[in-house]
Specification:
Blueprint (H helix, E strand, L loop, with lengths): L15 E3 L5 E3 L3 H26 L3 H25 L15 H15 L9 E2 L4 H24 L6 H20 L8 E2 L7
Antiparallel strand pairs: 1-2, 3-4
């Protein structure tokens, strides 16, 4: 476990930071951009959890949604650890995203989606407050995916990590629909009707 006794170290005062094994890189390094964007997605999911806690009336449903989002937040810390450690295999004591984490997301997506009516249009982000936060988290997860695939074009990235973040945005989309009264409160895009 991590033990933080000091929050500031002054190690980043010159525009560099340390990766998982102590390598120093610029704070704008593509690897730092990738795991920083993952951290941003995690923060938005925290806001979604707060909105879920305030708005869902059914205790069992609220607990189920919160459990899913809490697991995802923990996974995102795993993903950050994965991304900040270069060229290591899981057996070397390095935390890596694994297929079971991606499969869990897929199972949850399938279970939630089974209760939703098929889409007839694209959805505008919004509806309930929790859904709006989940849509924002989804777009940040997509940005994290873009950062990760750009990084993967230049350096080693765990392929399962890319799969996980791709599936995550799908999960957040479907959960946003579920929290919009199973899609009944979704705001549908009407082409050409913006003005």
């Amino acid at each position: 476990m991590v033990k933080l006794t000091r929050i500031y170290t002054r190690g980043g005062d010159t525009g560099e930071t340390s990766l998982g094994r102590g390598e120093r890189v610029a704070k704008h390094d593509p690897r730092v951009e990738a795991y920083g964007t993952v951290d941003e997605a995690n923060a938005v999911i925290g806001l979604a959890r707060a909105a879920v806690d305030r708005t869902l009336r059914n205790d069992a449903h609220r607990a189920h949604v919160d459990d899913m989002l809490k697991r995802i937040q923990n996974d995102l810390f795993d993903l950050g650890a994965d991304l900040c450690t270069i060229d290591a295999k899981r057996g070397e004591g390095v935390l890596r995203i694994v297929a079971t984490q991606t499969k869990r997301l897929e199972g949850e997506i399938d279970a939630m989606n089974a209760e939703l009516a098929p889409l007839t249009s694209f959805i505008l982000p919004g509806g309930s407050e929790a859904s709006a936060w989940l849509h924002l988290a989804r777009t940040v997860a997509r940005r994290a995916e873009r950062r990760m695939t750009a990084l993967a074009a230049e350096q080693a990235v765990n392929p399962e990590a890319v799969k996980y973040v791709n599936r995550l945005s799908d999960h957040l989309f479907v959960l946003a629909r579920r929290l919009n009264d199973n899609g009944a409160a979704d705001i549908l895009w009407i082409p050409g009707k913006g003005g």
